[in-house]
Amino acid sequence: MVTFAENQPVSKAASQPTTTGRPMIEARGLSKFYGQFAAVRDVSFSVPVGQVCAFLGPNGAGKSTTMKMLTGYLAPTEGSAFLAGHCMETDRLAAAPLLGYLPENGPLYLEMTPESMLRFAGQTRGMVASLLQSRLEYVANRCSLTSVWRKPISKLSKGYRQRVGMAQALLHDPQVLILDEPTSGLDPNQTHDVRELILSLAKTKTILLSTHILTEVTAVCSHVVLINEGRLVFNGSLSEMVANAEMETRFRQLTVGGRTP
Ligand SMILES: Nc1ncnc2c1ncn2[C@@H]1O[C@H](COP(=O)(O)OP(=O)(O)OP(=O)(O)O)[C@@H](O)[C@H]1O
Fold first, then answer.
1. Which domains does the chain show, CATH number per domain?
2. What does the DSSP 8-state code read for residue 132?
3. What is the pLDDT of residue 6?
């Protein structure tokens, strides 16, 4: 068991929006084809500074594929992704410090401990030793990792592995978080903790969050982007989405038996 100093606040400078006047996250006509199959087709939307946006869709709708294109991990077949105005195809290095990404099944080095993996991640990002140490302490506390800090990741439960992924996304104090199903596989207590964490991060960050859990959307998001079979079928506020029906009913109306409403 390791104990750490009090949580440190996210640095003010790092949480300031950029001055480009552009949305923080922007998908412009994104498509991804695997052979003839369109995993994502002509998806456009944007997330302004400070917004928490839910990214919804049934299994296989293309959420993870879109998120990978937004984060520069996957090249689009057509279209472009921008992060704080930086094109992810041509200017990814400039965007990297601004972006924290929790992939669906994040690449965790199983033989490492949370401490050694996160330290390695920080060094790879070029964080200076004193800053890295304070950020390690911050994410260990914030993601409730102190009890497993020096245990091999291979021995951790799915919930703790997810927290390590979240800690990696937060380590460098990015302005933008792209979180692919952050509560997937978590028990109700862990889900509650992660939701609280996202709510508190929402005060200073721009967040795009994919989830299957509709109550999560109403708990933390103000805006909804919904895709079905690779196509955008809704892009609007949460109140517009649920104006005339329950969330679940609206989700089914938009995704079952038809591509467009
Ligand atoms: N490398 C690949 N080669 C071929 N097809 C792929 C590849 N990656 C994804 N797909 C397909 O693209 C579609 C979209 O997949 P994606 O993982 O983006 O969906 P998703 O909305 O994230 O689904 P889930 O909610 O189940 O995670 C699926 O039909 C998937 O099988």
1. 21-109+176-255 (3.40.50.300)
2. H
3. 32
